[in-house]
Amino acid sequence: MKNITIVVLALMLSSNVSAQKKMNVTFEVGAVCGMCEERIEKAYDVKGIVIADYDLETHQLNVVYKTKHFPNILDVHRLASNVGHDTDLIKASDEVYAKIHGCCKYREEVHQCTGDHEH
Ligand SMILES: [Cu+2]
Fold it and tell me: How many whole angstroms from 58 Cα to the centroid of ligand 1?
């Protein structure tokens, strides 16, 4: 009887381990407008990302991701930097940054954006 209990416990433990682990992180991402927000959230519309919610006011991106797809947190940050947005860990390359829309140049102090811009 004791042995069966151990087997059952072992099974429960192993199924827990093999279950996909999710991580919830929040980090800073540079952005200025709704277009940026859209661009960032779209960049996180990939396999392994469960939730990606950007708050334009606090500049915080909340991401729930599966560690199986993203064993390294830097790869989660890279999704934003790849589309031109700096995170608190990875800077976007100047090349990609140059390509984003003029009113999305969040590194500059002055923005051309009036809120009614073309896409
Ligand atoms: Cu923008």
Answer: 15
Q: What spacing in Å lies between the alpha carbon of 5 and ligand 1's midpoint?
A: 58
**Cα 85 from Cα 96, distance rounded (Å):** 9
Q: What stretch of H or E contains 50?
A: strand 49-55
Tell me: the pLDDT tens digits for 11-57?
666 655 556 799 999 999 999 999 999 999 999 999 999 999 999 99
What distance in angstroms lies between residue 30's CA and the mean position of ligand 1's atoms?
Answer: 10
User: How close is the Cα of 71 to the center of ligand 1, in Å?
Assistant: 29
Domain annotation covers residue 110: no
Number of structural domains the chain divides into? 1
